[in-house]
Amino acid sequence: MNEDEAYEYVKSTLKKEMITPYHSDELTIVSSVSRCINCGLCINHCPVVAAIGVDRFSGPRSIAVELSRSPPEYWSTADKIYLCTGCGTCKEVCPKNVDIPEIVNLIRARIFEHRPDLVPKGFMLVNEIITEHGLAFEPWADKEEKEESRDMRLEHLGLPFIPDIVKEKADVLFYPGCQAEERAQEVREAAKVILDLFGVDFTLLNEFSCCSLPSRLMGNEIKARELAKRLKNKIKKLGVSKVVTTCAGCTSNLADLAERDDWGIPTYHLLEFLAEEIGYARLTQALKGKRLSESVHISVHDPCHLIRHTSRRIMDYAMDILALIPGVKVTASEAHDSCCGGGGMVSYHSKDVADAVVKENLIALEETGAERLVTPCPLCTAQIESNLFKSGSSIEVDDLTVFLAQKLIKE
Amino acid sequence: MTDSEYDVVVIGGGSTGTAVARDCAMRGLKTLLLERDDIASATVGTCAGMISSGLKYSDEPDIMAMCSKEVVHFNHIACHIIMKNPILAPLLELSDAASDSSYVDSYSAHAEERDVPAMLFLTPEASREIEPMLHPDIIASVYYEEFFIDPFRLCMLQALDAINHGATVRTYCEVIGFDINNNTELEGIIFYNRVSGTTERVSTKLVINATGPWAHKIAKLADEELDIRLNKGAHVILDRRVVNVGITVKAIDGRWIYLFPHENTTLLGTTALDTWEDPDSLVASFDEIEYLLQSIETILPSIRETRIIRTMAGVRPLVPEWKRPEGKVTRGYRIIDHSETGKTKGLISFTGGKLVMCRHMAEAVTDLVCKKLGKAAACTTHTQALPGNDADVDVAALSKDFGISLHALERMRARRGTEMLKVLELTKEHPEWKTTICTCEPVIEAEMRYAIREEFPQTLNDLRRRLRLGTGPCQGTFCTYKAAAILSEELDLGGDDFLVDILDFRAERWKGIRQSMRGEQLAQEELTLGMYSCVGNLDQSDVDYDIKPWEEGF
Questions:
Q1: Structural domain includes residue B440
Q2: Residue B459 carries which DSSP code?
Q3: N or C end of chain A, less CB within 10 A?
Q4: Residue range A216-239, pLDDT digits in tens
Q5: Do B412 and B483 belong to one domain?
Q6: Going by DSSP bridges, is the β-strand pair A328-330/B256-262 parallel, antiparallel, or unpaired?
């Protein structure tokens, strides 16, 4: 055998032994996990453990000291590893900074490669949609129906329609994310309203494609890298100097990708963009004389992908901006930064777990007495909204972008 | 023949002793195994578990051939406790390869029967794809494959299989003398029962001394001289599989050392020092740890960033070839019939040998035993499977059926194969026994209860050998009390026994931790200390406990 044939042979043995070699960019994750001292702080903070107990989900500590130790046996974590919502609370409370969310992705990638039969069926359905459409949700079959749905939403919210713009060399790429692109269209439209109001030179993608986070979360690393590359090429071709999104998951993923793949341009959540690039003075100015009479009592939910995977400062901005709006009273919920259960794609295969996780948020929310909940993430919005509705609560939920757009438009 | 009359008594519950007892029992001999401590509690328990193809022994072609054959046999009789490791031997200089080209040919000569490829050469790029931690300056690497067995389970299964075939296995029975008649014929054996504190005697026609590094001491009890070369080997144990494949490298003194993924840890070994220390209180020295780290560091520069959880040290009972380095001493074994070398008739001792040869050694000595006893029976230890080897186990289906975590069951399967069904049966009547006791490995209560009832442990350390209890990153920080409570309940231990056993278990952990404590393991040890002192008040217990030699100074 020559050296190339030898390498092919070795790869086939590794495949048989179910070993996917750690890549050099994964070594920091592995070494972070080996720092765990088994103190168990994370178990007491894990929202999934709190919701369903350690017998069903053995928790972040067990991922560190038990489930992540032997790559040939990663397949045998399949009954546990998909229950992690990836909220990152464990990493935040960990005295040794163990990166549990990333080791979860690494393990899921190995299961996807070696034991696809153990990957939840719900993931495989999404995987097919992503492969076919480059989107995490099945796109509308009828374009007109999609527009009708959009217009109904805009009318209901009292928001104007700003036509889509696609052009090269704009300052900002507005990237709505799959949820706002296909489902929560009002978020996409509201962001356009805000960007337009402040005269931002923005563009949309000619053809929207997924940021790759869902593929990463389900373990399809190859597809994730392919989507990331596709997106980078589109962004480079447009020649924009910033990317702005309204989705929390996209915010953290785009930031990671921009660094990993050398995009050379910054990425923002719309809230960051407003605070850092537009400024509170212009916001205050724009809010003057708008619907001042209407007072509203709200509470705020902090998306995990913003506070733990990106930066807690984004929610500080959110609170600052809400404070600028006359007539808005904010009462903090005790569970304001607790995972909504919608993360990690858990709801795609174990909806009961996702719904059990959100319960704590619902209870705390009722205690605030707020009439409305706002959150800067369309996925959190959907998860909390449907559970509030099922529980018969009268609290309404708005994506923060939509809420803000409503406050900014003229009476 | 009464209950206390045997055809053969085997001394020593290591890999060789249990293999001999199994072979004797399978050939219909009335067999007793006496072990001073527990099954696999000494030399074999400190080895890397490699059932070596013998590639290091290219000077001894017969031994290489035998090793290879034995690997085939083990894969046939114990596949459920065996894992294959792909291995890279990266080269930094061309001279590294040239000096050892004989390995390549001799390894490759027997590769086919083991169903592995001949040695392969890989480019530096391919090598670093397979193992990104490798030094960027490597020029090539040699690739080969070896098999690894769980040495604790191997010995346990051999002992259990011996019992299944009618042998008696007694642990915690220390041989203290022989009855030798005026014709210098061995007639009986006297031993001290360490559990009951009584002295017992049985009659036997033959005694097989398979006590490894204690062989000369046992021979001395019959007034026989036995020359043996004792050689210390130490390992450093990392918390997880940190490398994708095994790595072998020339150490700073030109010996070969290795870093092997083993179960869910990685073993870095080994050293080789002629030793006269007491094997019971032997610990790895600072020099040995540093020798291993510096040697592997030449090819894996970031090795010190990994987490060392403990060390282990054992003694090789080498054939007494002197005035040559350890690596040049034969890896074969010798059977010493003391009726020929001395005067005692009926006493047979071993020197030398390796884990991979234990079945072969047993076959050879049992042939001799049968000849002496005039018994015609063929060896079947290489054709009859060890318990649990029977078939594949559908772990995923069992996980669903019994509602126990998939990973816990896969670890159990790696210890028990099809025999795991007997453990799972227990959970039907006692669903509460699905509780996880050791959270690192993991081990559930049902397996612990099963092991206590069926595998004759006396202490927590015995349970560790059967279940890997407390061998993970936290080194028994959380499982000790829980496991001790279960053991006490099953064995009806009193409060003081309970505490002494906890102290003993902690001491045994500390034996391996103390020397290597650095980096993250310091934080872990602080937490452990806090748990046992501040929460458990273990430092305030006033039970009668003798401090172990390696605990002194604290």
A1: yes
A2: S
A3: C
A4: 999 999 999 999 999 999 999 999
A5: yes
A6: unpaired
B 466-525: CB under 8 A from A: 472-474, 477-478, 520, 523-524
Pair (B245, B140) in one structural domain = yes
Give the structural domain span for B201: 5-43+152-227+331-373
A53: distance to nearest CA of chain B, Å? 13
Same structural domain, B536 and B400: yes
Continuous H helices in B312-405:
338-341, 358-373, 395-402
Q: How long a stretch of residues is chain A?
A: 411
What is the model's pLDDT at position B365?
Answer: 98
Which distant-in-sequence residues (6+ apart) come within 8 Å of A215 by Cβ? A127, A130, A221, A223, A224, A227
pLDDT of residue A291: 57
Residues B208 and B353 in one domain: yes
Give one DSSP letter per residue of A44-96, joined into a string: HH-HHHHHH-TTT--HHHHIIIIITS-GGGGGGGHHHHTT-----HHHHH-TT
Domain count, chain B: 3
A35 interaction partners in chain B (CB closer than 8 Å): 307, 520
* Residue A194, SS3 per DSSP: helix
Identify the sign of the CA torsion A14, A17, A19, A21: negative
Q: Model-level pTM? A: 0.94
Those residues of chain A whose CB sits closer than 8 Å to some CB in chain B are 1, 3, 6-7, 9-10, 13-14, 17, 19, 21-24, 27, 30-31, 33-39, 55, 58, 61-62, 65-73, 76-80, 96, 118
Token pair recorded at residue B101: 């080209």
CATH number at residue B164: 3.50.50.60
A34–B242: do the CB atoms touch at under 8 Å?
A: yes
Domains of chain A: 11-119 (1.10.1060.10), 143-278 (3.40.50.10700), 280-408 (3.40.50)
Which of chain B's residues have a Cβ under 8 Å away from the Cβ of A72? 83, 241
Q: Which residues of B touch A62 (CB under 8 A)?
A: 439, 442
Token pair of B43 as six digits: 């030399």
Predicted ipTM of the assembly? 0.93
- Domain co-membership, B185 together with B250: no
